[in-house]
Specification:
This protein is of the alpha/beta class. It has helices at 15-21, 45-54, 65-76, 94-102, 119-134, 139-150, 162-167, 173-181, 204-219, 235-248, 261-267; strands spanning 3-8, 23-26, 29-32, 35-38, 59-61, 81-86, 109-114, 154-158, 185-191, 194-201, 225-231, 252-258, 272-278. It contains eleven helices and 13 strands. The mean pLDDT is 93.
């Protein structure tokens, strides 16, 4: 049984890694005015953060179901099964689109997987699935492994500018105004598939320290973890943070990723995050 792996663009897996592990990617869209861009195809994260400074905040949209159907049908010519890994169903209809498309194709069995997260923590599932698929593991076994990883997965995000969350409908106007006045940096996480405040912390420095401590609680077990530092146009800060974390937690393997256009629309420039799961 030959299994393909699909994820969406919000995993922000670099193209060379997607190519290496044969991961197919389906893009979400950002819409500036009347112009729609497929993220990771028509617009890079760098281009997006520049454009946001010059234009109104864009809107975002999920891939059309037809795009999933087309991809699954193409894969059916070479594969028996496909594992389709997507951002949390609580913040996007992308996963639901994959589920619907799975009922519309023949000759291939589709296994949709709700990562219940986004960004590179979602990408870690796709990379693990792809490695197993290339080793010849069947889809049922891969799905079981992903569910096992999910039990150890954590991700925390800090928004630097609350206005994006408020404009995107993720935070009330009152909360945004009060938060800005008090310099509050809400620490966010996924709970029951949606983004909710984990804690409200007064400064950026304290918020990042709190995330470090949360990782430390898990890393204290001595078990091996993989973790990813995620930034919204703050690469230098991300590199410094990664270096600090590597010193603190030698049993954790760290990489760096970014909040691309779709997620960046809601979190805004300057956001930082950290996600991890057992290896």
């Amino acid at each position: 049984m030959k299994t393909a792996v699909v994820t969406d663009s919000t995993a922000y897996i670099p193209k060379e890694i997607r190519d290496k592990w044969k991961i197919e990617m389906i893009p979400l869209n950002v819409i500036f005015g009347n112009e729609a861009y497929q993220e990771e195809v028509d617009i890079t994260a760098e281009q997006f953060y520049q454009q946001v400074k010059e234009e109104d905040l864009p809107t975002t949209s999920q891939p059309p179901i037809g795009q999933f159907v087309e991809l699954f049908e193409r894969l059916s010519k070479e594969y028996d099964a496909v594992i389709s890994i997507h951002l949390s169903s609580g913040i996007s209809g992308t996963f639901a689109g994959a589920v619907t498309a799975s009922t519309m194709v023949e000759h291939i069995k589709v296994y949709p997987f709700d990562s219940e997260t986004s960004c590179m923590p979602q990408g870690l599932y796709a990379i693990e699935a792809a490695k197993m698929a290339l080793d010849g593991e069947d889809a049922v076994k891969i799905m079981s492994r992903l569910e096992e990883l999910k039990k150890t997965a954590r991700a925390y995000f800090m928004a630097d500018d609350l206005s994006h969350l408020q404009r995107g409908g993720r935070l009330s106007s009152a909360q945004a105004i009060i938060g800005s006045l008090l310099q509050v940096k809400p620490l966010l996480h996924f709970e029951n598939k949606v983004i909710v405040p984990f804690e409200k912390i007064r400064t950026r420095k304290k918020a990042m320290k709190r995330i470090v401590d949360l990782l430390g609680e898990d890393a204290a077990s001595g078990e091996h973890y993989q973790a990813v530092v995620i930034h919204a146009n703050r690469e230098e800060e991300a590199l410094e943070w990664k270096s600090e974390l590597e010193t603190l937690y030698p049993n954790v393997e760290f990489t760096i990723s970014y909040f691309g256009p779709v997620i960046g629309t809601h979190l805004g420039e300057g956001a930082m995050g950290l996600g991890w799961m057992k290896k």
